[in-house]
Specification:
Blueprint (H helix, E strand, L loop, with lengths): L27 H18 L8 H10 L14 H6 L6 H6 L12 H16 L3 H6 L2 H8 L4 H8 L3 H11 L15 H5 L19 E4 L3 H5 L3 H12 L3 E4 L8 H6 L2 H20 L3 E3 L3 H14 L4 H9 E2 L1 H10 L12 E6 L2 H4 L6 H6 L5 E6 L16 H18 L3 E4 L2 H10 L9 H9 L2
Parallel strand pairs: 1-2, 1-3, 3-4, 5-6, 5-7
């Protein structure tokens, strides 16, 4: 008698490498068959319905079909589910009971990635999507004196935003990043530690750090870099900025352009691997970029030793500080209370399996109460700015906004600065988002 399938996992989920180089990966018929299999299992479970718009879209397709089952759903509509997935990974890491090693072997985010890759290989991407995901080019052109002021001003003009909405489907009501006239690299020039040989190791950390600026950090929010430098030096951590870098590849991954991801990897990994060989730990101020190096690239290139080496050397900024706190190497002499803090835990940080390190560190500040909000903001890198997804992104962020308003905190923010601004854009209180690293610097009084 055949053994019936197990009802869910009792083991931690295991991630398989992404088989993106095989011909079968791009077989459209095989993809449709796997989508139907997984969608049918998801339909029978429905635990993920509150995470993002992919699952309500899928379940509506089933419920509105003539059979109330997957066999009544037109395969042409599968793409509607795929389009709403922004690869946050929360369904895999926090909800799905059928991830490997379960025999049903469901990896919903990587199935969606495969579908995106098949679509991109078949038809490419439109001009808007190519533009929005070309973060290096956009930043290098727009983050300049005068030009940045003009662009930022245009982005705040309702009439011109409505024209942009109609012509390019970039929502007129969405928050768009501002561009700086002085990049993170320019601001941190000459501020690197000069005594790297005196770095003091502690536990898993070497005490010698290279900051990977990220496109967003470098071109749009460079103060994050200044705050990290100030906090790390205050904790006797030797720090410098990575000499040069390209986009991590996450925007292209979400587009399904895996060859572009490969090119980004080939530009970044050799330099980051050299830093790891020199004893540097690496951090990034944007969780999505850290996730790219810690998870996605290792799964795409499992046999690349340098990719694996960089993954082991990469840390979240607050994770790094808390690892040193575990060894008694964190400065806990705080000068300023933060009062009540509403802290939004970013999805791409949560799935890195490090625990609530930002909340834990901020809670060390005397007379500080930290309320954590573990709901997706619905921003992603580009999802919330696209007109066709704007309503869905506002729906997803609504529970987060409600919790921020109900808490009436002195401060609120997210490790993902874009999520923080998306929340701010949906609030009607006028209160500004503050990145946790800025709050920590404020608590130190430095």
């Amino acid at each position: 008698m055949a053994t019936p399938p197990k009802e869910g996992n009792l083991q931690a989920p295991t991630r398989h490498p992404l088989d993106w180089k095989s011909d079968g990966f791009y077989d459209a018929d095989a993809l449709d068959k796997e989508l139907e299999r997984v969608f049918d299992l998801c339909h029978g479970c429905r635990r993920c319905v509150s995470l993002c718009q992919s699952f309500p879209t899928l379940f509506d397709l089933v419920d509105e079909s003539p059979t109330f089952e997957m066999d009544g759903v037109d395969k042409k509509d599968f793409g509607k589910v795929v389009d709403h997935c922004y690869l946050c990974d929360l369904c895999y890491m926090t909800k799905c009971p059928y991830t490997p090693p379960h025999e049903w072997n469901i990896d919903f985010p990587h199935l969606m990635l495969r579908a995106k890759a098949v679509k991109y290989k078949k038809q490419g991407a439109n001009f808007r999507d190519r533009l929005l995901t070309n973060t290096d080019m956009m930043g290098s052109v727009l983050a300049r004196p005068v030009i940045s002021s003009v662009v930022n001003g245009v982005n705040k003009m309702p009439v011109l935003r409505k024209i942009l909405d109609k012509s390019m489907n970039i929502s007129h009501s969405a928050w768009l990043p501002e561009y700086t006239d002085k990049t993170m690299y320019a601001r941190l020039e000459g501020k690197a530690s000069t005594n790297m040989d005196k770095a003091e190791a502690a536990g898993k950390t070497t005490g010698k750090v290279a900051l990977y600026a990220t496109c967003y950090g470098n071109y749009s929010e460079p103060l994050m870099g200044e705050d990290i430098f100030a906090v790390y030096k205050h904790n006797d951590i030797e720090i410098k900025i990575v000499e040069k870098e390209k986009c991590c590849g996450m925007p292209k991954l979400e587009l399904g352009d895996l060859e572009a991801v490969k090119k980004a990897k080939e530009a970044n990994i050799p330099q980051l691997a050299r830093l790891a060989d020199e004893g540097f730990d690496i951090i990034a101020p944007v969780p999505s970029c850290a996730l790219m190096y810690r998870q996605e690239l290792p799964l795409m290139f499992p046999d690349d030793a340098d990719v694996q080496k960089v993954a082991k050397a990469f840390f979240d900024p607050f994770e790094y500080l808390m690892l040193r706190h575990k060894e008694g190497k964190l400065n806990t002499n705080f000068n300023t209370s933060l009062g009540k803090v509403s802290y939004h835990a970013a999805c791409h940080q949560r799935v890195q399996n490090m625990g609530q390190k930002t909340r834990e560190l901020l809670a060390l500040v005397p007379d500080t109460q930290v309320k954590i909000i573990e709901r997706c903001s619905g921003h992603d890198g580009t999802y919330a700015v696209k007109s066709e997804f704007r309503a869905a992104s506002e729906k997803i962020v609504r529970p987060v906004v409600r919790q921020v308003k109900e808490a009436a905190s002195d401060h609120y923010g997210s490790d993902c600065p874009m999520a923080g601004h998306h929340i701010e854009n949906s609030l009607d209180t006028g209160q500004k988002t503050e990145h946790p690293i800025a709050l920590l610097r404020k608590a130190y009084g430095i």
